[in-house]
Amino acid sequence: MVYDAAVVGAGPAGATLARLLAAEGLSTVLLEADRLPRYKPCGGGLTLRALRVLAPEALASVRVRCPRAHAVCGRREVLVQGGSLAVAMVMRDEFDHLLTRLARDAGAEVRDGCRVTGARLLPDGVEVVAGGQPVRARLIACADGATGPFAGPLGRAVGLAGTPPHVGALEVELEDPAQAWGDEVRGDFDLVPRGYGWVFPKAGILSVGVASWRRGVGGRALREALNTYLRRLGLQSRRVLRARGHPIPVGGRLPASLLAAPRALRLGDAAGLADPLFGEGIAHALESAHLAAAAIVRGQPQAYARAVGATIYRSFRLASAVGDVFYANPRPWFALAGGLPAARAWAWRLAVGGLGHGAGV
Ligand SMILES: Cc1cc2nc3c(=O)[nH]c(=O)nc-3n(C[C@H](O)[C@H](O)[C@H](O)COP(=O)(O)OP(=O)(O)OC[C@H]3O[C@@H](n4cnc5c(N)ncnc54)[C@H](O)[C@@H]3O)c2cc1C
Asked: What are the residue ranges spanned by the domains of the chain?
């Protein structure tokens, strides 16, 4: 059998694309290396940008809605009440598994525990080696994340150029059995250069992490910053359920040849689509799936690169400009936000995608 599309990776990008293509009647196979449900290091925070493009059925996996954020920088602390602009928290194993079930319900064939290890172009399509078996399709969608093989040699084998740049992130999941933390998001902007630490509550579990956008801030510096952070929060003796470092592919404007070739597209983290301000990636993974599906259904896969430029890259320009100014010296901005409720409200709307920019589908 030759599928219309083979989608590699059942994260938010791949599972959503498989659902959208199958719903349009295209024969679609979704190939996932791990057995589902699988763990993914991630804060699991869904902003308005993500919620706008999320399948409504996937809201069933939301564990907590956080209407408030507590931002800290040195002695400055700012509490932001987001009201209805809440951030929704999910556990990624549950969330991604649900998105994959929705793809299967729409008619996609889902093969988990099926790692893609090879790929080559054919005159009229692509052949991949998945779980040791050849799978043929007219087109391949590479949604294999920041560390998948299509960011490197397999991408080149199907006509995609380059590798998106990465920054480092480290996260632990801690037990919070009494849910004592409540429903507040916390961000600390004095732990690492050009980066931040976060606490995201998920009903019984806390995701605590640090990420830095500065090149050269490696694993050791992040580990030290995370330990400092846990002590600051008084959480250092909580039981650690999981601890993992993972890159965030903070893109920016990358060449179109990295995103699309005649028979291959890159989506989500594989395409470097994490936001350059906070490293948010789920919204852009979902949005890239919508843009890719529209281009594939129209029979113009390469139009996908233009669509990413007109929507996701547009929102990245604002995020990048704000990030350059803010991270260079966050303290005066905290002073401003501390004194001006309008500045606090603007910062929250910017963070959660309530300014009207962002998801363009
Ligand atoms: C510590 C950390 C915290 C984060 N917190 C947030 C947050 O709170 N909110 C937010 O919006 N974003 C967050 N992000 C970013 C977010 O996790 C990613 O942007 C998002 O997961 C991208 O989705 P994706 O579908 O592109 O890729 P992924 O979710 O990485 O999915 C890729 C899939 O491809 C599979 N795969 C890989 N190789 C192969 C292969 N050879 N064959 C078959 N399958 C393969 C993988 O197993 C995986 O299931 C965070 C990232 C990190 C590292």
From this structure: 2-43+92-165+250-325
